[in-house]
Amino acid sequence: MSDIITERSGAILRVQLNRPAQKNAMTNDMYTSLAEIFNEADKDDAIRVVLWHGAGSAFCAGNDVVDFLHHPPGPNAFPQGILMDALVAFSKPIVVAVQGAAVGGGTTMLTHCDFVYAGESTKFVLPFINLALVPEFGSSYSIPARAGYLRAAELYLLGEPFTAQHAAELGLVTRVVPDGDLLATATATAEKLAAKPSSALQASRQLLKQASIGPIKEAMKNENQVFFEQVVSADAKEALTAFLEKRAPHFAKSAV
Q1: What is the pTM of this model?
Q2: Low-confidence ranges of the chain (pLDDT < 70)
Q3: Which helix (DSSP H) or strand (DSSP E) does residue 106 occupy?
């Protein structure tokens, strides 16, 4: 079965991450496939809204660490970057239902969505520092822009989990809803959007986003450059290996 399932319902394209046993952790192939889905949906005039969610108990656990170690990203092979470009270029509303866990990219991808509904038991975490990595998907700009520097620093420099309610307080979530109502709530919003005049909907969305597009692209460029340097570091190798071995990492001491 496909790792990503799509289904059309009228003017709505439903996109479901479909690796429930792996908490929908993203592989390189999934990044590429998801980018293609968004690019094709953008060109299809019959699609007005994307409804995005995950199968099973989690929205997305970030990168599949095994796949990540076997196919490390770099300037000449960076499927995550293909998805970043697709999300920045996408011209139609994205409504997302987030349940269970939203880890790393499972959180930062949400910054490109227009409506983010989180189940009340959802846990978010930006664990990049714990893996000796750095923010991505332009989130080094978008999250401080929404939450303020001090709150963003707390999320990124400590890398600790936070609740759906705290995510809402930081401006990362549209609304927190009961877990059992999550998909229905997101679907209802997608249906309302699909009934709006499409040209005015897309034009309004573009106007709301235009001031942030340039800074987000610049942030992505800077993030990616540093990410490529960090991902080949000894600390990153140790962190990812320790994660797979279920032990605490032992980072080298910095020179004073």
Answers
A1: 0.95
A2: 1, 254-256
A3: helix 105-108
